[in-house]
Amino acid sequence: MPVGTAATVKAMCPGEVRALGADIVLGNTYHLMLAPGAERVAELGGLHKFMNWPRPILTDSGGFQVMSLAKLRRLDERGVVFQSHVDGSRHELTPERAMEIQRLLGSDIQMQFDECVRLPCARAEADRAMRLSLRWAERSKAAFGAQPGPEIFGIVQGGVETDLRIESAHALTGIGFDGYAIGGLAVGEPQAEMLATIEAVAPHLPSDRPRYLMGVGTPTICSRACRTPYRPCHA
Q: Is the overall model pTM greater than 0.70, yes or no?
């Protein structure tokens, strides 16, 4: 799933992205909220038409920016107020507004609004953010409503604390989503902890629903001359 954060996969035309085998691309709620604006995209016919991509689009909710732009935001139970990194203007993202933006964009898979924390972090911080994300999950689901067509995914949080992750997975399943994502990984923790967390959580997610591992970054590259991705080359 190539990243098209601001409605484009950088340096590539849509036909080139498709020719490489991509069936779905990702757009970002926070960045598209700033420019060109969700309402403007809706007026222009939606994100598919705007970026000339007639295939599925998944939109992140802005939860990653809650972490990555921590110095430019204020967080409370209601949501997050950001100071734009572009022009300093102030914008509020709540679960309700995040779902409204994604509805205006017209994406096919819409993510709940959550809080992603940077790792490593104290257990108490992982617990706080996980429980806030669950409350926001309920609000996101309610705001999403019964839209015909798009789907909404819940996001498992809890740092690298296995019991918190499993609790999050079970609670999200109880709320009921069309698919489930494992978020908040590849954000500073050792790779071994990331893999162990994935292995612990996956069995607790419904096997009859899509499961999505969010933003895990660059694949492991072999250190030998062949630079083989994903696995050791044994050269």
A: yes
